[in-house]
Specification:
92 residues, mainly alpha, 2 domains, 47% helix
């Protein structure tokens, strides 16, 4: 989005960018062999992508976290190489 300098959050503000995102995520779905129901988004920054990935990993590891919180849970672990984006360390 930054390369095109468009506000591509919703179809109304940028129909072309939104349609391109739909086509691109569908290509990725097909390449990865995911089911037709798969849906996704293209994030604007590596930091946003990292935040969503960490939240998804937390939800997978601690499915009851939204209802019960994480207090009293065993400590989770995040494995990342030294090449990981700086937002990973900040997000953990």
């Amino acid at each position: 989005a930054a390369a095109l300098n468009v506000n591509a959050m919703v179809w109304h503000s940028s129909p072309a960018a939104t349609e391109l995102e739909e086509v691109t995520t569908d290509w990725l779905r097909q390449l990865l062999g995911l089911p037709a129901e798969f849906d996704g988004v293209i994030n604007d920054t590596a930091s946003s992508s990292s935040l969503y990935a960490l939240a998804a990993a937390r939800d997978a590891a601690f499915p009851d976290a939204h209802e019960k919180g994480l207090f009293g849970q065993s400590a989770g672990r995040v494995y990342a190489s030294d090449q990981a984006h700086s937002s990973i360390e900040k997000g953990v």
